[in-house]
Amino acid sequence: MIVADRKPLKELLEMVKDFNKILIIGCKGCVTVCNAGGSKEVGVLASALKIARKKEGHPLKVDEKTLERQCDPEYVDQIKDTVDGYDAIISMACGVGPQFLSERYPDSRFFPALNTTFFGGAVQHGIWEERCAGCGTCVIHYFEGVCPIARCSKSLQNGPCGGSNEGKCEISKEVDCIWDIIVRKKMEHDRLDELLEFRPPKSWTTARDGGPRQSIREELVI
Amino acid sequence: MSELKSGSNLEKVLKAGHFAFTGECGPPQGVNVEHLKEKAGYLKGCVDAVNITDNQTAVVRMSSWAASLILLQEGIEPNFQMVCRDRNRLAIQSDILGIYAHGIRNMLCLSGDHQKFGNHPDAKNVFDIDSMQLIHTVKTMRDNGTFLNGQDLDMPPRLFIGAASNPFAEPFEFRVHRLAKKIMAGADFIQTQCIYNMERFREFMKKAVDMGLDEKCYILAGVTPMKSIGMARYMAKSVPGMDVPDSLIKRLQGAGKGKVAEEGIKFALEQIEEFKEMKGIAGVHLMAIEWEHKVPEIAEKAGVLPRPSV
Amino acid sequence: MRISYPTSVKIIQVPCTGRVDILHLLKAIEDGADGVYVAGCLEGECHFTDGNLKAKRKVQYVKKTLEEIGIEPGRVEMFNLSAGEGPRFAEIAIEMFERIKELGPSQVNIKNAA
Q1: How do residues C73-89 score in pLDDT, each as one tens digit?
Q2: Residue A48 touches partner C, C-beta closer than 8 Å
């Protein structure tokens, strides 16, 4: 899923400081799964903002709504009779949500409540880790099902580098050296010689480096 | 390894079968060229070539190519270094052509420390290609006479290609295979990370020699004399991929106050003596960063002076 | 037991403090409570295994949130006691009451009183 973290309350309060009536819209997709922008988190943010503003003697009216997703026009359409009348609307979806909302409702002002970070999954209740960098040319099968583009700090394809230390990346003891894992897996499965094959320079055209991307299912386009 | 690939001094020394001796010098964090010339001056005549680091530990310094040019002007042969962290394949190939045009003949291909270590941690990192692919790039340009995309160069840059090897990083069993891979990709000479654990290094070299790697590539053993107990402890704890045995730290502690640096040099000299005889080792790379003024003394005591004229 | 505790403490009973949600605590502050505390079983003795531990983490989260928006985190607290400890219950109520008296009325109330 897409993983995101809520922006600090100070930043959000700054965003809404000149407003008196706002709407917070959550999303039941990825951000609910990573507990960043679902209906619960919308409630918590609404309450926190209201408390802060009451304290300042400058109350804020906050309405709450959660959509199935904010990345499909059908769901974004659902609030067409609700969007008017707010000074600003905060989207608690990933970076896609506020943009889709902005495009659909050009007369309203949208603010992102989250900092969207990576594609990942839950490794433990409450902890999500990055697994995919969206490079557009998946090659994990060459690396025992592990992605060095996303999980190696230097995206090495012929790793490890000399900084691998006791199975950890040189940048931090909290980060596993993914090449250590790849090499050990290859050794375990007696496929170490596969790592002697030179991996040529990667084409980054399918990654974000190639420009904003599109995905088209021809058979579905009307 | 029959005909000269670049004609550099280092290559000629190694080809002639002499025990090579290289040094290292860090470029300035500014434009103080005089200080750079002073540091390099100590190394002149004591070493066959001088490594010029490239934004080492991700701390911004004068570019390796610029500092290398200055050394060239001083009559010292530089080992130009390039890391993959800061440049994409366009800039890399572009710079390779540029440095060659200016007379630089040795090039070391490295990954580069992650920018988190350095003084500009907010920077975007590049890593368009990795160090293995960089070695391949230089070899392609030199031996195929083409750019990476296959397009012809009007004239190929004939560089002596170097790479680094860390026998102590993990997984240990894989390091010698990675060295083999770098040699297959095109490395002509290798400089290892500085060695303190001699036993482990002997093990590594035995494997390398068994695989015949020393016949395909010149391997230079890295030596950095310990200046102080603080330095030994720091390297043991905080430098990734470094193996500093407790026995060495104890030895330095036993040297007595004020005599630690002397003991450190003594250890380094013992290492150099062993490397001269060690099968597969073609020379030593001495990294005495910010201690360049000690190099003439060390070179003298190590018995590597005068340097061969080839 | 007929032990007295301050009348300004209003009790809301829950089957387990694990049932208490972040929003219950935040909304209490939002609606003007000067303080809110959660009294759960002693750690290791939760009737539902770890409801009280979950409550503790939620209280921590609310304290952090309050601090971020400039409200004293001491206004929200977690306490642990056994169901049979009548005197301890009163002790906690008095402790919290004294603490809130010291902190004064919630700034949410001050500004809105005017």
Answers
A1: 999 999 999 988 999 99
A2: yes
Q: Is A141 on the interface with C (CB under 8 A)?
A: no
Contact C108 A48 (CB under 8 A): no
Q: Write out the residue range of the structural domain in which residue C34 sits.
A: 17-113
Return d(Cα C71, Cα A55) in angstroms, integer. Answer: 8
CATH 3.40.50.2300 residue ranges for chain A: 2-118
> Tokens in use for A166?
């006791």
Helix (H, G, I), strand (E, B) or coil at B284: strand
Examine residue B51 and state whether it is found in any structural domain, yes or no.
yes
Contacts of B149 (CB under 8 A, 6+ apart): none
Domain span at B73: 9-302
Q: Is residue C7 part of a domain?
A: no
User: Locate tokens 């099902």: which residue?
Assistant: A145
Q: So what's the pLDDT on residue C111?
A: 61
> Could you tell me if residue C9 is inside a domain?
no
Q: Which chains touch B (3 or more CB pairs under 8 A)?
A: A
For residue range B255-293, list pLDDT tens digits in order: 888 899 999 999 999 999 999 999 999 999 999 978 999
Q: Residue B59: what pLDDT?
A: 95
B295-302 and B260-277 helices, crossing angle to 10°: 50
> Which token pair is C93?
């109520």
User: What pTM was computed for the model?
Assistant: 0.90
Kindly state the DSSP code that residue B142 receives in the 8-state scheme.
Answer: I
Tell me if there are at least 3 CB pairs under 8 Å linking chains A and B: yes
Helix (H) or strand (E) holding B160: strand B160-165
In tens, the pLDDT along A129-187 reads: 999 999 999 999 999 999 999 999 999 999 899 888 889 998 988 999 999 999 999 99
* pLDDT above 90 as % of chain B: 88
Please tell me the total count of domains within chain C.
1
| Pick among B89, B111, B116, B139 to test the A interface (most A CBs inside 10 A) | B111
Q: Judge whether B310 lies within some domain.
A: no
Contact A164 B241 (CB under 8 A): yes
Are A137 and A202 spatial neighbours (Cβ–Cβ below 8 Å)? yes
Pick the CATH number of A2-118 from 1.10.260.40, 3.40.50.2300, 1.25.40.80, 2.60.120.200: 3.40.50.2300
